[in-house]
Amino acid sequence: MQWGWLMGAALGGYVLGSLSFAVIVSRVMGLNDPRTYGSKNPGATNVLRSGSKKAAVITLLLDAVKGWLPVLVARWAGLDVDAQALAGLAAFLGHLYPVFFRFEGGKGVATAAGVLMAFSPWLGLCTLLTWLVVAYLFRYSSLASLSAAVLAVVWYGLGDGTLWVLDRYTMAAVVVMALFLVARHAANIQRLVQGTESKLGSKKKS
Fold first, then answer.
1. What is the predicted pLDDT for the residue at 202?
2. Fewest Cβ atoms closer than 10 Å to its Cβ: which of 13, 77, 78, 203?
3. Global model pTM greater than 0.85
4. What is the 3-state secondary structure (H, E, C) of the chain?
5. d(C-alpha 111, C-alpha 62), whole Å
6. CA trace torsion 114, 120, 121, 122 (10° rounding)
7. Does the pLDDT value for residue 206 go beyond 60?
């Protein structure tokens, strides 16, 4: 794999990931900037606090697609798995540090889910089910996201090569995304420990 292709995959993924759809969708639909209320996080969960479920769903889907698409484009272009993994990771980092929005992005949950779905639909499904089960049992979006991030690494490592192909590049991307997700949820972790974290459906900061 030539460095030029790797850099192209990374740049393309990062630029697409830098599109902060929470802000874009809110502007198009005439809503307040999600960076000015609630948790001030430009993500679907905070957009939901605007009162518009439609805007939140659109944001969620677009954030996931921008993680999914770069990996698929790299694959369709015939690039090796290292370029595919790099494209997905770059899209995720673009969401966290978007060049178009002063490098102030969201936590990356939906974008990471899109990347995992592109790596393997089965891996994405396992991670999504983890989020849904934890969210249903405990009603904490942050706890569900943290559990899904950590267990995504476990699910990938448990793959036997039939449901998804095991390789060090993809594994590295999954681990790096999990580490960033945990770091981005540091404040949530503190509130969970203190018992002050808001539950799903609450309008309090989370």
1. 64
2. 78
3. yes
4. CCHHHHHHHHHHHHHHHCCCHHHHHHHHCCCCCHHHCCCCCCCHHHHHCCCCHHHHHHHHHHHHHHHHHHHHHHHHCCCCHHHHHHHHHHHHHHHHCCHHHCCCCCCCHHHHHHHHHHHCHHHHHHHHHHHHHHHHHHCCHHHHHHHHHHHHHHHHHHCCCCCCCCCHHHHHHHHHHHHHHHHHCHHHHHHHHHCCCCCCCCCCCC
5. 8
6. -130
7. no
Total count of residues recorded for the chain:
206
At position 121, the amino acid (one-letter code) is: P
Number of other CB atoms surrounding residue 176 within 10 Å: 14
